[in-house]
Write a structure and sequence with these properties.
single chain; mainly beta; Jelly Rolls; six-stranded antiparallel β-sheet; 1 helix
């Protein structure tokens, strides 16, 4: 039934509204329609296009889907619940997001850690090329009697806790001394770890009659076990280094430096 027209009943002796099957059936139809609405049987076809039902009367929670929203709807950003919902794939490569919008601390002493947080570089870890240890000497070191079994330490680093990543260990001297061939002119250099020798890193020989001097840079790539380590460079034979505090007319320090490979 698309609509219901109630009967305007009249008392006897009027016969205008005499009881008939049609009028009784009309009454039954109205009762049936009212019952259907009261028990949730109302369908879309029962609602006129001009009904203008208030939005507050509609139970739409969880019912509106993406297809219901027009492309031109221009819904305000503040009305969208996007907390923790935006993924990396949602951001275009050309988005050009300002650095200050990212949760990066403005602190040069902090780096990105493996757990996604920011903090001080871990001891013995840090970033590639980052310095993990440095030690220097500013006085001459020379030997003519030491042997490989009892070498002379030239420079020794600090005890540092490393994370087990590969390292680059540099030894640099601007003034290496090597005695003449008349004094068995050779020197051997090695690198000491904790607790034993890592290996030889240099072998110099002088076949001349006079002492020679030259700059040297010796490097070693080494992967220690995780934990405390202390590195040193040692020499034996007939050689050493001349070192000073640096500056005009002064020898530069001789140093050992450890960086992350």
């Amino acid at each position: 039934m698309s609509s219901y027209a109630p009967t305007n009943w009249q008392d006897y002796p009027s016969l205008a509204t005499a009881i008939s099957a049609a009028r009784l059936n009309n009454m039954e139809s109205g009762i049936q329609a009212a019952y259907r609405v009261g028990t949730g049987g109302l369908t879309n076809a029962d609602i006129a296009n001009g009904a203008a039902i208030a939005y507050s009367k509609l139970a739409l929670t969880g019912q509106i889907v993406n297809a219901d929203i027009a492309a031109a709807a221009a819904i305000s950003y503040s009305k969208l619940q996007l907390a923790a919902a935006i993924l990396n794939s949602d951001i275009a490569n050309a988005a050009a997001i300002d650095l200050h919008k990212l949760n990066i601390p403005n602190d040069a002493t902090k780096v990105a850690l493996g757990d996604g947080t920011w903090g001080a570089p871990p001891a013995g870890g840090g970033t590639v090329g980052g310095q993990l240890d440095y030690a220097q000497i500013t006085a001459n070191v020379f030997t003519s009697t030491a042997t490989e079994a009892a070498p002379l330490t030239v420079v020794q680093g600090n005890s540092v806790s490393y994370d087990g990543s590969p390292l680059i260990i540099d030894f640099c001297s601007s003034y290496v001394l090597l005695q003449s061939s008349a004094s068995s002119g050779y020197s051997l250099w090695d690198m000491q770890g904790t607790p034993a020798q890592i290996g030889r890193i240099g072998h110099t020989t002088n076949n001349n009659a006079a002492t020679i001097y030259f700059p040297a840079l010796m490097k070693k790539v080494y992967t220690p076990s995780a934990g405390l380590h202390q590195f040193a460079v040692r020499v034996w034979g007939n050689g050493g280094v001349l070192a000073g505090a640096g500056g005009p007319s002064v020898d530069a320090p001789t140093f050992l430096r450890v960086t992350k490979a």
